[in-house]
Design goal:
Distance between the termini: 21 Å
Radius of gyration: 14 Å
CATH superfamily: SPOUT methyltransferase, trefoil knot domain
Helix content: 25-40%
Strand content: 15-25%
Structural class: alpha/beta
Shape: globular
Largest sheet: 7 strands, parallel
Order of helices and strands: EHEHEHEEEHEH
Number of strands: 7
CATH topology: Alpha/beta knot
Length: 154
């Protein structure tokens, strides 16, 4: 199980998601360009000292990421407000790569079309979206629960 962020644009959210990945033993991927410098102090502050504890793959572009993903044989599971299937009804597998789009714009059609699954987190009508870090935590929690992949307590 891994998480990928498509062109993230809020450093605090990215740092928080990377901290989540570190704590749960999940690899993370950043698909560039990011909307902030990776050295941004808000990014480093949100990730705290956990950033050294997560395996981070950086991909220079969407095509570069896709080439890497295909080579690894990973299933791309996109979380989107335009998804038709609830993430609670999806059967996650250990080779899933959970993809989250830009906070400001989601993902383009090309990325939507490339996803093997397009999932939504159900929420109250009339609201736009859940904070991406919260959505990643919900999605990763369910995926790890289903695949019985949570780390064992020390």
């Amino acid at each position: 199980m891994q998480i990928a962020l498509y062109q993230p644009d809020i450093p605090q959210n990215t740092g928080t998601i990377l901290r989540l990945c570190a704590c749960l033993g999940v690899g993370a991927h950043l698909i560039e360009p990011a909307g902030f410098p990776i050295s941004d102090r808000h990014f480093r502050r949100a990730g705290m000292d956990y950033l050294d504890r997560v395996e981070i793959g950086r991909h220079a572009s969407w095509p570069a990421f896709q080439e890497w993903r295909r080579g690894e044989g990973l299933r791309l599971v996109l979380f989107t407000t335009r998804g038709a299937v609830s993430y609670l009804d999806h059967a996650f597998g250990p080779r899933d790569l959970l993809l989250f789009g830009r906070e400001s714009a989601g993902v383009p059609e090309e990325v939507q079309a490339a996803a093997d699954a397009r999932l939504v987190i159900p929420m109250q009508a009339g609201l736009r979206s859940i904070n991406i870090a919260m959505a990643a935590a919900m999605a990763l929690g369910e995926a790890l629960r289903q695949t019985k992949s949570f780390p064992q307590p020390a």
